[in-house]
């Protein structure tokens, strides 16, 4: 049995300090330890989730993968977002963030986005919220010039830009209709951050188009309770998009109408929705 295998076994030791030492040793070994840690993460989920100690083993493995920052761990970390342990989920979220930030230009980060989008359809609201948060991180990183410029293939740069515009943004807007407030709020914050990073009027207008489509009564007549559910987030995003357009227009010397401030409360929600529907 080699050193890595011994350390992997020690992650399940009854002694807390032994587990901690094993985890730190695996982090110090780095990339050579990644395949064994990934294999540990691929163990039967139900068997692991039924035992508290097994959860701790997975949590420690996830933490180690996050510290090593190897992109090979991205697929198993995405799977960990949907496991039955909130502790493991939280560590997986942080690990994905560390890996993404430490690997600018790596297309494996881009490939992770469709899997995260798929998780927005999970019944478990906690999983949906973690997926939204991970998408929020992914969108911020994929929209960062440092990450984009590090992508060697020009066509790959175009694809990652289209991924945000055509997949991430529409899915996050769709998530504004989620029945859980925490999920809706996380999606709204993610969209707000994407709006803030927009550098052209066209980018902002594309987001506005997606917002309009989400509220298009010819596709689906929203009920009052649905408007209430998404209203606060929609109202804020509608105003933020208009303000961003004004900022960008002023930089280019283009005059746009002033942004109206919708009244607060339910009246403001209906006004924002009505204005967006009518264009």
How far the N terminus sits from the C terminus, by CA atoms, comes to 67 Å
**How would you state the average pLDDT, rounded?**
77
Largest sheet geometry:
none
Shape designation: elongated
Spans of 5+ residues with little confidence (pLDDT < 50)? 262-269, 275-279
Structural class: mainly alpha
Tally of separate helices: 15
Radius of gyration: 22 Å
Helix and strand sequence: HHHHHHHHHHHHHHH
Please count the beta strands (DSSP E, at least 2 residues each). Answer: 0
CATH architecture of the domain at 1-73: Alpha Horseshoe
CATH topology of the domain at 1-73: Leucine-rich Repeat Variant
Proportion of strand residues:
under 5%
Task: Tell me roughly what share of residues is in helical segments.
Answer: over 70%
CATH class of the domain at 1-73: Mainly Alpha
Protein described:
Among the domains are: 1-73, Leucine-rich Repeat Variant (Alpha Horseshoe); 212-279, no CATH class. Residues 262-269 and 275-279 have low confidence and may be disordered. Helix 2 packs parallel to helix 5 (52-68), helix 6 (74-80) packs antiparallel against helix 7 and helix 11 (154-175) packs antiparallel against helix 12. The chain is an all-alpha fold and 279 residues long. The radius of gyration is 22 Å and the shape is elongated. The chain has helices spanning 3-10, 16-29, 34-41, 45-49, 52-68, 74-80, 86-102, 107-119, 125-142, 145-149, 154-175, 181-197, 201-214, 224-251, 265-278. The chain has 15 helices and no strands.
């Amino acid at each position: 049995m080699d050193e890595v295998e011994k350390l992997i076994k020690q992650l399940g030791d009854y002694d807390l300090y032994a587990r901690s030492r094993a985890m730190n040793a695996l982090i110090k070994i780095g990339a050579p330890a990644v395949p064994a840690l990934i294999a540990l993460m691929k163990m039967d989920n139900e068997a692991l989730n039924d035992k508290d100690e097994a959860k701790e083993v997975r949590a420690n493995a996830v933490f180690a993968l996050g510290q090593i920052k190897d992109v090979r761990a991205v697929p198993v970390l995405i799977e960990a977002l949907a496991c039955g342990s909130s502790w493991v989920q939280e560590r997986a979220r942080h690990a994905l963030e560390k890996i993404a930030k430490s690997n600018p230009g790596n297309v494996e980060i881009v490939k992770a986005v469709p899997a995260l989008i798929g998780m927005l359809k999970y019944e478990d609201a906690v999983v949906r919220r973690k997926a939204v948060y991970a998408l929020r991180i992914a969108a911020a990183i994929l929209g960062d010039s440092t990450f984009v410029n590090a992508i060697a293939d020009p066509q790959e740069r175009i694809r990652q830009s289209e991924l945000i515009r055509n997949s991430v943004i529409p899915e996050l807007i769709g998530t504004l209709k989620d029945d859980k407030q925490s999920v809706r709020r996380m999606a709204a914050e993610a969209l707000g951050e994407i709006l803030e990073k927009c550098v052209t009027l066209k980018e902002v207008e594309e987001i506005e188009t997606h917002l309009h489509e989400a509220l298009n009564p010819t596709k689906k007549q929203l009920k009052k309770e649905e408007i209430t559910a998404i209203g606060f987030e929609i109202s804020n995003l509608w105003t933020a998009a208009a303000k961003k357009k004004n900022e960008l227009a002023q930089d280019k010397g283009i005059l746009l109408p002033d942004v109206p401030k919708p009244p607060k409360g339910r009246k403001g929600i209906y006004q924002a929705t009505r204005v967006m529907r009518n264009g």
